[in-house]
Each structure stands twice: as structure tokens, then as C-alpha cells.
């Protein structure tokens, strides 16, 4: 039983209807099937490719990190934009809305453990998880959910599109949206495993010298935002390929603050000099083409600060791009 969990409401999946029987005219809201992860009668998905969408309604990690709160409402906002997407995939592709994990009445640690149980349940149902944050503290709960199936082989890697390393120490001030990958590092170390972590889009002005030192000591390779903006992104593929080649499974996470605030105004920590989404999509598709990506999330979409739903719409386009690439891999 997953605690602090709720089944999604149908009215969050609504939108324009061009046809009720022509699949080529369908949008996602017409194809999504809502399920309850706590329903013990659910059978594992036996089709060719199934997607599970789950919301993590939490931004306590952002509050503890002294950022702009509001991302707890991100899942609802992103679903609204996902509803509009066209179903340009085979009918064999199924999309399931797996509900939400919320944190009212429990601690952040407990909320992350509930998220982990939900992710683990989705994997048991043979669904490819797509998690909608929430603050980027989503990542630690998400990783814990993947760990039992993929992490213990020492061949699970994390690729993080982010302006920040999010590897701050947490012994004194506790976990937050800036500590997740330090927590993953420590969790892996306790289990005698490597820290397979590649952050992409790091901003020098957004990270302390101590964080760069930690990355060096932990053997973390990283890609700076300036090297993406000023260079040929295809030259960076060698570094990405070197990282992915040694691994069997990849978890990809995107923090919306990796983008320039002109593209993503509704985030907890706006970036005046972030990345261009079209460039990120090119890199993301290159990673997906490895066929090793087993799970994906996007975090820190904050409707409170979002202008014209630009950030939520960007999140939906990123998910659309990821799903399209995964479908192509699975059906070709």
C-alpha cells in the first residue's frame, strides 16, 4: 500500500475533441487511462510500450533550499498541457495516469519514500515512469524507486539537466532540493556502488567552489552551460557517450531552471543565462537513442510564477519529445 497517494481526477485530462472515433485525430486526454496504483487487482501491462505518468505534489525541498515555492502544483499544470498533445504514435502505445503522491502531514523523507514505492509499483506493472514534479527533491525519491530493480547492479546512471550540481551537504540543515545527488552518492557509497552521475548545463555563477570540489573528489564529469551555448553540441556527445557506454540503465531528470528564464519563467530559481530548449531536446534525443533510459522526470515547474503557462508547456513538449523518441526505438 502506497501511503499519501491519490488517484488522479478525470477532469484534469480534458480538452478539444476533433473526433471520437478517428485515432489520428486524438489528443492525449482522449487516450489516457487513469489507474489506481493501490488497486491490488491491477495486472502488469503486457503490451509493447506502456507509459505511466505520476505526480509528486511537493515543494518542501524548495522551501528548505530557500527557493520560490509553488512547484507542488506543477503536476496539475503540466497535465493540462499534456492533454493537448496529439497521439502521433501507434495504438499499441498506452498512456496510464498513475495518480499523485502528496506530502501533507508527513516529512520530506517520508514523502520521498512514498514516491519510491509508487515508482517501484509502476515498474512492477511494466510501465515506463514519467514523474511530474514537484521540486527537484523528486529525484531522490525517484532514484530510490529505481534502485531495487536497476541500482544494485552498479550499472544505473543519472543524467541531470540542471544549472546546479544539487550536491550540497545535508548533515546540518537537512535534505532539500539542493541535496538529492549528494544523498544518492552517499546511498550508493553505503551499498558499495559507484556514483554514476552526469550533470548537464551547470552554471559557474550558480554553484560554490565547494560544489565543484565535491564533483572533482567524487569523480563526477560535468558539462557547463557555456560549453553548450558557445560550442558545437555534437562535440559534447563524446563525453555523454563515454558516460552512457559503461552503463546498462539511465535515469534522466530535468530541472526546469536549466533553461533561460525567457523560456521558463515559472521556476524556483530563474536563470537569466540558461539553455535553449531546442538544444536540450537534441541532447535528450541523443541520450534516448542509447535505448538505456528506463525512467524520466521533470521538476520545478511553478504555476505561481509561470507566464502564459510557458514553463508547463515547455515541460509538456520535452515529455512529448522523450516519448516520441522512446516509441521510435521500441517500434523500429
Task: Explain what this protein looks like in three dimensions.
This protein has 332 residues and is α/β, with parallel strands linked by helices. The protein is built from eleven helices and ten strands. Strands 1, 2, 3, 4, 5, 6, 7, 8, 9 and 10 form a ten-stranded mixed beta sheet that branches. Helix 10 links the parallel strand 9 (249-255) and strand 10. It starts with a strand and ends with a helix. The model has no long low-confidence stretch (mean pLDDT 96).
Keywords:
single chain; 332 residues; alpha/beta; ten-stranded mixed sheet; 11 helices; 17% strand
Count of helix runs: 11
Low-confidence stretches: none
Radius of gyration, CA atoms, in whole angstroms: 18 Å
Class based on secondary structure composition and strand pairing? alpha/beta
Characterize the largest beta sheet: strand count, sense, and whether it forms a barrel.
10 strands, mixed
Question: What form results from the Cα inertia axes?
Answer: globular
Percent range for helical residues?
A: 25-40%
Secondary structure: number of strands: 10
Mean pLDDT: 96
- From the N-terminal CA to the C-terminal CA, the straight-line distance is 37 Å
Classify the beta-strand content into a percent band: 15-25%
Tell me the layout of helices and strands.
Elements: E1 5-6, H1 28-31, E2 32-34, E3 49-57, H2 60-64, H3 74-82, E4 93-102, H4 108-124, E5 128-133, H5 138-150, E6 156-161, H6 180-190, E7 197-202, H7 209-217, E8 223-224, H8 225-229, H9 233-245, E9 249-255, H10 277-288, E10 293-299, H11 310-331
Parallel strand pairs: 2-4, 3-4, 3-5, 5-10, 6-7, 6-9, 7-8, 9-10
Antiparallel strand pairs: 1-4
